[in-house]
Amino acid sequence: MNKIYKFLRNGYLLLSVAISISSCKKFVEIDPPLTQLATASVFEEKYTAIAAVTGIYGAMYSMVYFNIYTGLSSDELTSYGYDLYPSLYQNALSAKNGGFLVWSNAYKYIYQANAAIEGLEHSNGIAANIKNQLLGEVRFIRAFWYFNLINLYGDVPLVTTTDYNVITKLPRSAKTDIYAQIINDLKAAQLLLGDGYVDSKNNSTSDRVRPTKWVATALLARAYLFNKDYNDAALQSTAIINNTATFQLNKDLNDVFLKNSTEAIWQLMPGNDALQTPEGSNFILDAVPTAVALSPQLLQAFEPNDERRKNWVDSIVVSGTAYYYPFKYKVKYGSSDLTEYSMVLRLAEQYLIRSEARIQLNDLRGGTADLDTIRTRAGLPGTTATTKADLLKAILHERQVELFTEGHRWIDLKKEALIDQVMTKVTPEKGGGKWQSYQQLYPIPTEDIQHSSNLKQNPGY
Questions:
Q1: Quick check: is 394 in a domain?
Q2: Where does the record place the SusD-like N-terminal domain (predicted)?
Q3: What angle do CA 344, 349, 353 make, to 5 degrees?
Q4: Residue 22's CB: how many other CB atoms inside 10 A?
Q5: Is 345 helix (H, G, I), strand (E, B) or coil?
Q6: Domain that holds residue 156
Q7: Does residue 321 form part of some domain?
């Protein structure tokens, strides 16, 4: 938030947006403003408004680091020593060395979304259909980052303004209030966004990189599930699953993470011409790992004959030692022909959301059918679980082996109140000390505590 304060003092939507746009020209295809522009001016013209909004999530192409942080914190990844990775891996973060992690970027994106909302709502120079599309996109972005914030930090300040004097005095808001804001934003986004994907000129496109009504619906289903509103979670996920004209599970597991796969609900286009995706660059090994590799705990979680183990995990052997890595993305280095986009939301998760929601609603048959849809695609027989409790355990396991390194495991363990049970065993195995329950929340940056009169640090830090 300290970085946000700097933005606010100037009263501008700063060049951070323009920089992110220019770094992903293939995505935006519109030249960004070359000077600082007052927010009102940016949103009075169609193309600068589109560029400013698409630039926000254009800068989010490195979402892989969110997945690495949470994968190291949980039982998905092994650290081989890089910057803060050992502290994450050993669950030994401090306010000094780990405070920035997701917090600073999340509030930067939220601030930019708030600035866009204020600019768009007061704009008279943009056609209603484009204004609605952009407003829907930024309300989705705000909801997306608040979901991540509360699941990493607990109660957090609810910032819905760009007013510096207001923001610097905000205390933490309860998670219930944050979830209410998330749900409100996503329901609004559903109404504002269209059914189809559009490009940077608002023309129809096959690229699934700008939010649509379905993107908002996917996150809304997840938010309802985490908020224990199982009926609405099932309704939202069903709407996506039933849209078979747009979304279908890929039969071939190697097609899932291709750009514009039928399973993709929302992807991010790489923002660096030297890469295919940040995931491919960071995960695929061609030498002894210097950052991360897959953990023994994850490798042991796969059942025999699971096709995901065969297709989504690979290894190299160096001096007799095997190192295993995620192989969902197949290309490590860049080329002029992009074949993969970074996956953020996909259809398989919606089946698992609906499975859990149905089981919580005592529709065991329906929940089992959804679970088995994912298992069948992986080449596995139907689940042997029959009771509600066992089926919920089976879903958690399926999420572990289906969604690994996509940012879910850490927050899934917290949602199920299993994090203490799992990490008490895993943290010592990772070379850390004794697991302490407070470590399930990340620390807030010290500088933001110092700059905000009502912001308090998470206990233990």
A1: yes
A2: 88-225
A3: 130
A4: 17
A5: strand
A6: 2-273+340-451
A7: no
CA distances from 173 to 3, 48, 162, 355 (A): 20, 34, 17, 31
Q: How far is CA 211 from CA 201, 265, 413, in A?
A: 14, 9, 28
Helices of type H across 305-346: 307-311
Block residue for tokens 């219930």 = 176
CATH number assigned to the domain comprising residue 103: 1.25.40.390
In a domain, 206, yes or no: yes
pLDDT over 60 at 14, yes or no? no
Nearest by Cα to 328 from 64, 86, 58: 64
pLDDT tens digits, one per residue of 357-405: 999 999 999 999 999 999 999 999 999 999 999 999 999 999 999 999 9
Q: What is the pLDDT of residues 275-313, one digit of tens each?
A: 689 999 999 999 999 999 999 999 999 999 999 999 999
Please give the tally of structural domains in the chain.
1
* Sequence letter at residue 64: V
Provide the token pair at 85.
């990775």
Residue with tokens 């509600």: 388
What b/e sequence results for 83-121 when a residue is b if at least 16 CB atoms lie within 10 Å of its CB, and e otherwise?
A: ebbbbbbbbbbebeebbbbbbbbbbbbbbbbbbbbbbbe
> pTM for this one?
0.93
Confidence of residue 1 (pLDDT cuts 50, 70, 90): low
